[in-house]
Specification:
The complex is a heterodimer of chains A (193) and B (173). By secondary structure, chain A is mainly α. Chain A has two domains: 33 residues; 145 residues, no CATH class. Chain A is 77% helix and 0% strand. Chain A is built from nine helices and no strands. The longest helix of chain A has 26 residues. Chain A starts with a helix and ends with a helix. Chain B starts with a helix and ends with a helix. Chain B is mostly helical and 173 residues long. Chain B folds into two domains: 44 residues, no CATH class; 122 residues, no CATH class. The longest helix of chain B is centred in the last third of the chain and has 23 residues. The chains are: A mainly alpha (193), B mainly alpha (173).
């Protein structure tokens, strides 16, 4: 997938560069744009370390466990048919808690084990169950309390108020998650194997 | 609204460190070991960022992105999204790194406090790299038939984009 995107970008830029007579600019970009990658890392690297550190504290004092226990009444309602105290449900709540706290790196392995546990519990045989689909949809819609990377890039671009978008982000992601959820619920009746 | 958001990040930092201290966790050592793993993550994404800053930069320089945005401007109007964020909306579900590169360009061109800058920021904050997430989660299992995951997830993305523009227009005039 990424190979196609990368090659496609380069090929298209040559096509359009020739048509628009902008090969000089394309060539300059081909040589110099990679500097921006280092620039981006410098901008967001600090905040990545900061939040990874803060979340490690939250993990060491079992705060993440407590938060995920807070979620379990909700997740038990969403993911019907899974054992409330089972391995799958545990991994699901931990994953959603980690996502909410912006712990992307912790969320991914937890999500993978949640899917694997659901596979075992629901015995689905190569076909995704309704619960798996719901779970992945909730993960693809970003459930994040503080969009740290976005805020850092805004700060880097000279923003006086990098967090001013916070309420907007919450509302937009809440509606987005809700619509993904409804769509998954709607389609699960039509889309059987 | 702006006042409340000023308290959130300092509040979370204070709460977590205090909570850790009260539960007799070596707060500073835990922080340092976590932050060390953060460096690893930052450097792990560097190679793909190099590829995509080059690709996106070349596309921009060739004028291709302007042509795409122009071609898709009726769609943008239909969804009442600013035309400038169309490339971001197209790449966001596919590649996190290229979305980041385009996002940074938008911030540099229009400013983080502008309408375009705010809509782009809200889009970045409220959506995820959909295809990547699906690939990772189902790739790690034996599931080959993913059923309605993709249409449902892409609906969430589309609604997220439309909502981003709408919320910014309503909340941050």
């Amino acid at each position: 997938m990424m190979s196609w995107i990368f090659t496609g970008m380069i090929a298209l830029s040559i096509v359009f560069g020739v048509i628009n007579g902008r090969m000089e600019q394309v060539s300059t970009a081909a040589i110099g744009e990679c500097r921006k990658a280092i620039d981006l890392i410098l901008q967001i690297g600090g905040s990545m370390c900061l939040w990874a550190g803060v979340m490690k504290i939250a993990e060491s004092c079992h705060l993440t466990h407590k938060i995920s226990r807070l979620f379990s009444p909700i997740t038990c309602r969403i993911f019907k048919g899974l054992a409330p105290k089972g391995e799958a449900m545990g991994a699901i709540t931990m994953n959603l808690a980690a996502n909410l706290l912006g712990l992307g790196n912790a969320a991914t392995p937890l999500g993978i084990s949640a899917i694997q546990a659901m596979e075992k519990e629901e015995r689905t045989h190569r076909t995704a169950s309704n619960n798996m689909v719901l779970f992945v949809v909730l993960n693809t819609a970003s459930l994040q309390l503080i969009p740290t990377t976005t805020a850092m890039l805004r700060l880097g671009a000279g923003s006086q108020a990098p967090m001013e978008i916070l309420p907007a982000v919450w509302i937009a992601s809440a509606v987005s998650v809700a619509s993904g959820f409804c769509m998954a619920k709607l389609l699960e009746k039509v889309w059987r194997r | 609204m702006a006042q409340i958001s000023n308290y959130i990040v300092p509040g979370i930092l204070a709460f977590i460190t205090l909570y850790g201290l009260l539960h007799e966790v070596p707060v500073f050592d835990a922080f340092v070991s976590g932050a060390r793993s953060g460096i690893g993550v930052a450097f792990r994404i560097l190679p793909s960022l190099v590829a995509l800053t080059t690709g996106v930069g070349m596309l921009r320089a060739s004028g291709a992105l302007d042509v795409f945005s122009y071609a898709l401007s009726p769609l943008a109007q239909l969804l009442s999204l600013p035309v400038e964020v169309i490339p971001l909306a197209l790449l966001r579900p596919i590649s996190g790194s290229s979305a980041m590169v385009i996002f940074q360009d938008l911030l540099a061109d229009f400013g983080p406090g502008s309408y375009v800058g705010r809509v782009a920021s809200t889009m970045m904050g409220s959506t995820e790299t959909t295809f990547y997430t699906i690939a990772i989660y189902f790739g790690a299992s034996k599931i080959t038939n993913t059923r309605h995951v993709l249409p449902a997830a892409l609906t969430a993305d589309l609604v997220g984009f439309i909502m981003s523009a709408w919320v910014v227009r309503t909340l941050l005039p």
